[in-house]
């Protein structure tokens, strides 16, 4: 349990040791459905969402985030699942942080796969095994700004990356496919030489920004934003609460 009342759901976006240097908080695995309901039982002061499960594990439910806000908890989101949920829920009081959140909020990005990656297991620290599309977009934009490749080539590479399943995205594969499609060898060679120092991790940068925003918020001692809605209890909500409580009981017994 966090002595500061601050909790952050974090996975492949940022190593916990690095995150802890930005914010003293309790760091939890990527958020899944029911986790926010269970966490609210601890009376948190603030919750930060960076990473979250999806596909094989049900994603965090919008209504449980609204429940936390209704309970007076400040809920922050950035980078990955946090940016997606914050873009959807910022009108109701969730606090979005960073460039990725802003792009989804403003409609410049729409697809969930923009932030999705495949990663390794928890015991290895959730290492990323693919590259997020948002990182590729930012990196290619920087390559154009640094006169490494022309804008037209960046757009072609971006299209190649976007066409790949998120699990298969990586700079090496994009460069190989680009060569097969006739992108000039000298441009690809220049980009390959530039990438080790030039590539930019937008997800990591946004996550760290969120942690710093949370730290400043906690230091100021201000109240959480007021809920901008009336929370409706429904049959589905009551069932979700019961399911979350049942799982929590089984975890304690285990």
UniProtKB/TrEMBL annotation:
What protein is this chain from?
TfuA-like core domain-containing protein
| UniProt organism field | Azospirillum rugosum
TfuA-like core domain: residues covered: 51-169
């Amino acid at each position: 349990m966090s002595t500061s009342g601050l909790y952050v759901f974090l996975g492949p976006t940022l190593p916990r040791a690095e995150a802890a240097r930005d914010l003293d908080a309790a760091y939890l695995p990527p958020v899944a459905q029911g986790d926010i309901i269970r966490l609210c039982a601890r009376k948190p002061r603030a919750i930060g969402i960076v990473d979250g499960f999806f596909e094989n594990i049900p994603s965090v439910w919008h209504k449980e985030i609204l429940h936390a806000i209704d309970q007076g908890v400040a809920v922050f989101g950035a980078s990955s699942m946090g940016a997606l949920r914050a873009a959807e829920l910022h009108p109701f009081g969730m606090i979005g942080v960073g460039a990725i959140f802003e792009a989804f909020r403003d409609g410049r990005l729409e697809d969930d796969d923009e932030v999705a990656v495949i990663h390794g297991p928890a015991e290895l620290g959730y290492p990323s095994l693919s590259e997020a599309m948002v990182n590729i977009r930012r990196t290619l934009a920087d390559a154009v700004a640094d006169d490494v490749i022309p804008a037209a080539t960046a757009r072609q590479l971006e299209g190649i990356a976007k066409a790949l399943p998120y699990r298969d995205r990586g700079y090496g594969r994009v460069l190989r496919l680009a060569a097969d499609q006739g992108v000039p060898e000298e441009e690809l060679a220049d980009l390959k030489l530039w990438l080790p120092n030039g590539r930019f991790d937008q997800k990591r940068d946004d996550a760290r920004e969120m942690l710093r925003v949370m730290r400043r918020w906690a230091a100021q001692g201000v109240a959480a934003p007021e809920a901008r809605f009336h929370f409706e209890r429904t049959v589905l909500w009551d069932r979700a609460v019961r399911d979350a409580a049942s799982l929590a009981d089984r975890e304690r017994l285990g």
